[in-house]
Amino acid sequence: MANARSNELYEKFKAKLEAVSGECYRADTEEEAGKLIGTILKEKGVQNVALLEGEISQKGNLAQQFKDMNIDVITSNFREVTPDAHAGITQVSYAIAELGTLVQADEDANVDQRLCSTLVPIHVALVRTESLIPTLAETMSTIHQLPQIPGFVGFITGPSRTSDIERVLTIGVHGPKQLVVVFVD
Description:
This protein is α/β, with parallel strands linked by helices. The chain has one domain (4-184): Rossmann fold (3-Layer(aba) Sandwich). It is built from seven helices and twelve strands. A six-stranded parallel sheet has the order 1-12-7-4-2-3, with helices on both faces. It is globular, with a radius of gyration of 16 Å. The mean pLDDT is 88. Residues 11-184 form the LUD domain. This is LUD domain-containing protein. It holds the Pfam family LUD_dom.
């Protein structure tokens, strides 16, 4: 059950993410998250998804939920399939409320995580609400207190955007055109 502090952090994160054209949702359970994501994917016309299984997706049986909604689910060979996948789903380690930023932190440079979050036109990121941290400073402190500092740490703030081509803002050149974040309580 969510408390006032987690609600406040979630609302701050959501406002920051939406300010950079991201979408943000919240679900009570893993199963509810799967239904929500399936509905979102169907609304966006997604026919297949590269699903990097994580604790949330496994517990919510997301792969089966999507199959039941006639969405093809790919769970391996990401190097070959992500360039043609309509969406990718990953679980991220942390979310930073003050920035509306997601944090991928892995012991090794997980290539599958990066493929499913950067080579697809839509990235759906799952995150535990309890992993929502107020500030960047607190997030860095949390990472430094881990038993082993991760070999890879990546930060994601909204859909890919660049202005390096004649100073014109372009979305989706170096990564996903859409970012959907689903917090799971």
